[in-house]
Amino acid sequence: MELEKRSAPRLDFGILVYCNGRRAMTKDISASGTFVAKDEYHKQLAPLGSDVALSFDFPTTEDSIDAIGTVMHHGKDGEGMGIWFKRIDDRTKEFIKMFVSDRL
């Protein structure tokens, strides 16, 4: 049995995100990180341990939600990358937390 490593509840939800300026979609999101799926717009994965700039387009706000994250792992068969939020302001973290909890 594998122990859950996540520190916050995660929501399986596709959100438009710009990762280092490239359009992509999330597979899931939590207040501590996200999984960005590889697709026709985002074909290359950032290297493990690298920092990425994220700008989310949440459906519930007109404001972009920005964060800096670190690539922690690549998904099975290179399907995407798990990103931990390294720099995210408290207001943004609380917004994501509420977005997730409202949908779980």
How would you sum up this structure in a few lines?
This protein is 13% helix and 42% strand. It contains 1 helix and 7 strands.
CATH topology: Thrombin, subunit H
Strand order of the largest sheet: 2-3-4-7-6-5
Globally, the shape reads globular
Provide mean pLDDT, rounded: 90
Number of strands: 7
Structural class: mainly beta
Q: Strand count, sense and closure of the main sheet?
A: 6 strands, antiparallel, barrel
Proportion of beta-strand residues: 35-45%
Radius of gyration: 13 Å
The CATH architecture classification is Beta Barrel
Describe this structure in words.
There is one protein chain. By secondary structure, the protein is mainly β. It has one domain (11-99): Thrombin, subunit H (Beta Barrel). It is built from one helix and seven strands; from the N terminus they run E-E-E-E-E-E-E-H. The chain has a six-stranded antiparallel β-barrel.
From the structure above, extract its key features.
42% strand, six-stranded antiparallel beta barrel, 104 residues, Thrombin, subunit H
Write the layout of secondary structure elements.
Elements: E1 11-12, E2 16-19, E3 22-29, E4 33-37, E5 51-57, E6 65-74, E7 80-87, H1 90-103
Antiparallel strand pairs: 1-3, 2-3, 2-5, 3-4, 4-7, 5-6, 6-7
